[in-house]
Fold this sequence. Notes:
Four copies of one chain form a homotetramer.
Chain A: E1 6-10, H1 15-28, E2 31-38, H2 47-54, E3 59-64, H3 66-79, H4 96-110, E4 114-116, H5 125-136, E5 141-143, H6 145-148, H7 154-164, E6 180-184, E7 187-191, E8 221-228, E9 231-235, E10 238-239, H8 242-255, E11 260-266, E12 272-278, H9 280-296, H10 299-318, H11 324-335, E13 342-349, E14 352-359, H12 367-370, H13 383-400
Helix pairs in contact in A: 3-8, 4-5, 8-9, 10-11
Amino acid sequence: MSDINKVVLAYSGGLDTSVIVRWLQDTYKCEVVTFTADIGQGEEVEPARAKAKALGVQEIYIDDLREEYVRDFVYPMFRANAIYEGEYLLGTSIARPLIAKRLIEIANETGADAISHGATGKGNDQVRFELGAYSLKPGIKVIAPWREWDLTSRETLMAYCAERNIPVDFAGKKKKSPYSMDANLLHISYEGGNLEDPYWEPEEDMWRWSVSPEAAPDTPTYIELGYENGDPVTLNGEALSPATMLETLNKIGGDNGIGRLDLVENRYVGMKSRGCYETPGGTIMLRAHRAMESITLDREAAHLKDELMPRYAKLIYNGYWFSPERRMLQAAIDESQAFVNGVVRLKLYKGNVVVVGRKSDNSLFDEAIATFEDDAGAYNQKDAEGFIKLNALRLRIAANKGRSQL
Amino acid sequence: MSDINKVVLAYSGGLDTSVIVRWLQDTYKCEVVTFTADIGQGEEVEPARAKAKALGVQEIYIDDLREEYVRDFVYPMFRANAIYEGEYLLGTSIARPLIAKRLIEIANETGADAISHGATGKGNDQVRFELGAYSLKPGIKVIAPWREWDLTSRETLMAYCAERNIPVDFAGKKKKSPYSMDANLLHISYEGGNLEDPYWEPEEDMWRWSVSPEAAPDTPTYIELGYENGDPVTLNGEALSPATMLETLNKIGGDNGIGRLDLVENRYVGMKSRGCYETPGGTIMLRAHRAMESITLDREAAHLKDELMPRYAKLIYNGYWFSPERRMLQAAIDESQAFVNGVVRLKLYKGNVVVVGRKSDNSLFDEAIATFEDDAGAYNQKDAEGFIKLNALRLRIAANKGRSQL
Amino acid sequence: MSDINKVVLAYSGGLDTSVIVRWLQDTYKCEVVTFTADIGQGEEVEPARAKAKALGVQEIYIDDLREEYVRDFVYPMFRANAIYEGEYLLGTSIARPLIAKRLIEIANETGADAISHGATGKGNDQVRFELGAYSLKPGIKVIAPWREWDLTSRETLMAYCAERNIPVDFAGKKKKSPYSMDANLLHISYEGGNLEDPYWEPEEDMWRWSVSPEAAPDTPTYIELGYENGDPVTLNGEALSPATMLETLNKIGGDNGIGRLDLVENRYVGMKSRGCYETPGGTIMLRAHRAMESITLDREAAHLKDELMPRYAKLIYNGYWFSPERRMLQAAIDESQAFVNGVVRLKLYKGNVVVVGRKSDNSLFDEAIATFEDDAGAYNQKDAEGFIKLNALRLRIAANKGRSQL
Amino acid sequence: MSDINKVVLAYSGGLDTSVIVRWLQDTYKCEVVTFTADIGQGEEVEPARAKAKALGVQEIYIDDLREEYVRDFVYPMFRANAIYEGEYLLGTSIARPLIAKRLIEIANETGADAISHGATGKGNDQVRFELGAYSLKPGIKVIAPWREWDLTSRETLMAYCAERNIPVDFAGKKKKSPYSMDANLLHISYEGGNLEDPYWEPEEDMWRWSVSPEAAPDTPTYIELGYENGDPVTLNGEALSPATMLETLNKIGGDNGIGRLDLVENRYVGMKSRGCYETPGGTIMLRAHRAMESITLDREAAHLKDELMPRYAKLIYNGYWFSPERRMLQAAIDESQAFVNGVVRLKLYKGNVVVVGRKSDNSLFDEAIATFEDDAGAYNQKDAEGFIKLNALRLRIAANKGRSQL
């Protein structure tokens, strides 16, 4: 274990990763570089500096990655209308590759030969961090303390803290929740505790980012989202940066009881797990993007996107953001977005996101053809006969040869 | 045109299809058999008998197809979690093959050599009726008056009625809406009129099957759906037949403001069209089925279903229910449903369908493994390292050879 | 029919399209512009000029499109390893969009309001020409004489020629074959005649571009193909332009009995049809490209390509080259080809194309890891245990719950 | 390591697995049950009995699994036209689940608590054996000596033999090859040695099951394969059991120089590896099955199969035969095969498998429609216009709105 000289740790400033700092120092006799990112988790990151210093860390990185996160990760993913297993908006998954990328950049800058993180050996995050890291720097060493150490219960962990003088109040406020939580600009997640019974309904006070539909205002909120090349760029006519857009939509959505999810998902490591999520802005963006596409995207492009989407979502869920296959799919998706421009009007009301209008200079909705009224010859109804006849030909031949489809 | 002797018409009893009866008699000098089905459209079908008689029809079929419809069409489709273009629950599409099938059965019983329907040449329904018919009886002739006649405006149609003594009040109540509507047990649809502007929000009184979320009760309704082999069989513990189940869920859902959709879809004939839909029961069933699958379906089976779904939905939307490729997909889907048994608990509140619990004797959710607590060795966290290392191997080799994934 | 002023005809100089010139002049009282392209069909195109003149045509286009054809159509398609229905290399399909594109360009240049072609109403080519044309110029009119006229038998056609003084020797040599043939740089095809019995083996003298395997040399020919970004750029070390490359490979392949295909395919218009094809150069290029990819392409990129390929091939077969969905797939495919560089060594012998070597500076084949010998720690075999354990986890849980996979 | 009482070993009778017998006895102090299967590898299995006895084994299983192998594994796979990465016919992959299944059956019969195999930690076979075993008996323990022991060089292995009195001539004839070989009724494979250079052409005397095309007869061999429900059941009119069919086709194919493959494949464990394969009968069966399908399978069923195939092949390659997702795909595939009946005529000549005829009572090839001659109205060419017009509609609308597809 003496072959590690310096390790970059994804450091939250919380108790667990503070223990990891010390454990790395003790176990590997190596220098620890901490890296704390603001990706919109809703907690101050600056306090992590003093905690890291107190642990003897000399190289401390604290970065505001919010704009990069939304612009280069969240937005490209939303172009795909990505949903994992029909429900999950990938709020944790999409944040991990950015952390991995920054860990590797810092390893390069500081000459570190390893990275470390606080994810457990049962979850998806270890996979996402490590696949990202290996893809960007194949020779990097990875230390995943939760897979190595024996501090597997709260008691042993506390004992370790006591022994090493790690202040337990590092744990912070968040840990007073009975749930394991994680947050970034796209969502906040809850796992563990009573949620481990999938028949158990979470109590109201678990949720932190949204009011309940019941508690939301009795009058709806209308908003207009403006799109360019598949990305939301204006809200009610005002241009917003990616991070500001998502922050604002989180606020508006949360105020209207939007974006709660309660589901059982299939982890890449092979087990099912219960998760609850709040994704207010993402929920709005998903509906809005589909609505924008509904008038601007060609039918077959849309269908191809729909068929590729589950695969794309799975790649991100499983941690393959930095992979050739994700890049291929992204190239196909991005190719489709050149004309996804315009405005979507939405009504937000007690948990509902209702699309009530869409318009675009690039609209393919052709009233002259679609109308139930006289179309002045824009569409020749007689064409439909030949269309149907030839589409039916193979079926008729088969039926003629005695094949039944009943 | 003298080669048609007898034609079976899908007859609603409304004005348009009543005109068609007369037009067929006049134009083809043929006998007309009318067929009127109760598929849950919410209107009496028996009155069609007198109207048909008044038009001189001698063979009149009036069938209650509600149970067959839900059991053999709706339920198999819901096993697939089918959604067209991310939004549409295929409420019109799935009813058409049943009508086509019954038209052909009646043609066989009555010795008719043709079928006819009242769908226009611009829509999907003509395709669905005719593909179904051709697939089941390849030599059948199809008469689609809207593609042939010149009664293309309300005026010419009325003039025709006046000339032939067709009572205009055949139009019935439904036509007082400014929208073109269609309904069956799965949904009611609205098209045309102001909806032809996709930026226009429909007025509240358009909707017929549901109250608005605003008008829905202030207290939530909880229900439990019991599943067997992927189909809902009990509601709050009581066994319900397929049609009764859907009727009941429509009622409960509609009362809670659930199931409204407003979208622009891509028709098979090549144009975009605006449609509004109310699918209260279907919206509940879709969420419930996914929730049931979430604890009972294997991960890769679920993912395969998700990847096949858009294609399956497209087949149904385009009218290929009676096709070898739909049967193949159905075989795959049905193969996956043997263990989709159990109970889903749902909270319905002002437009929201919230899954709040799921349980099953066939659950694959393994608390012993999934737990954040000590798992007593059920899962060896060290396995994750090898798992990640080998999954990363190809990425590391590529990176070693200088390929960047940024 | 008086609304056509000028029509651009895809003119081969043969009898059928010569008749079409006259028929268009007679029927539409319009000016006809002829367009004859050299796409490597192996016949002089210049003689078409005199024939067109003799028919009174004033605007005559004769273009050598061979380089554009291979560079912009054949090569992009081969990057996808496109095969239709497991066998067909799309030799006819891929030539059509280029013809459509040039027809539209000439229509734009000459102010023509229509295009015309000599494809029948039963085949795929009409679809490919017309979809291409409509996609590039949506208001263009299309005249497809074979779908309109009554010259449907050889006799009526000959009578028409006699009546209008069209020299019948326009038919040329090619028509002495009992087969309907078509050729371009990628292949020559045979249809009709005895081939309409799928159990009938074509006689040896049908084939024109290749010797039989029996008649091919008794000693093999070795060649080396050099690739850049997925395209073949050198043959035995010598740089060749796209058209020259394909011409040369056709010659070498044909001399070695390579590239004959005899199959029954499914046309887009709904029927099955028997076709025989000679694609000597294409057959070599397909094997070589896959071999080049086998050492340079990432596994998951390769698998994604394989899963997308049938769909891509179908798009081209059905005539959707100029479509958003083809562009999306092309974007994904091209994204994958940046490192498909290197050399493939092939042995050609009596119909066989045998890959006997591949090498590349971008090879991902890592001998140090792949070796059966001691790998000096490049790969840790113990990682496999965790890899297998976690991949098996979902299967074990299911088995534990009593599910059998037998 | 004392917790293993009895282990069932997949025992070839060769040196490596003989060493494993002793190593298991020594290391785990457990009883070893040997299992040797005849799956058509072309070597006597009975001699394994004496060798096992000499090693002190008391429970010895020697089974002839050839018919089960072809009937229940090879034939279902060939219904899918499965090819991995465009080239590989999965000859090794498909044999592994059968071995896994039998290992588990014997474990159940003998009360063993573990299985063991001689596959290395670098290859796919360990994955296939173990996934199969875990899927069938989730609590089984697996011992993979090559991942555990330190006998990683030939020298240490020989030293171990000397020390434990294991007769080195157990190695048998096969090991005199410089290649690592593996065989079963479907194929024989070669890996390692000089093949580790992908640019190196294997010498002629490596190949064991086929003559070279050069050495094959100068006159072709014609055969007729009869199919029922997608499986070959007669050869030249004579009914043959599955194993006899494959053995016979191997002989005929091998005699005609058919079925050699030389490729670089992507292993599931993450590396590329060079493999050479001889699959004479399988190569014939693949071409024949596709030809049989070409006249009997509906177009869209065929295309769906083609799109699912790469995924199906990957599942088998990766070891997921006993999985819900393979069963789902198999259900879809098998659903399509009911009418894949008839006869395919093939010409075999110096490495070429040429389809020269196909016929079937279930043929969908309709000469009356397909003919280039007058079809007496079976097909109305005018239908094509409407077909094209509506298929083009979306493209025309887009072009009208200024979108270019160039």
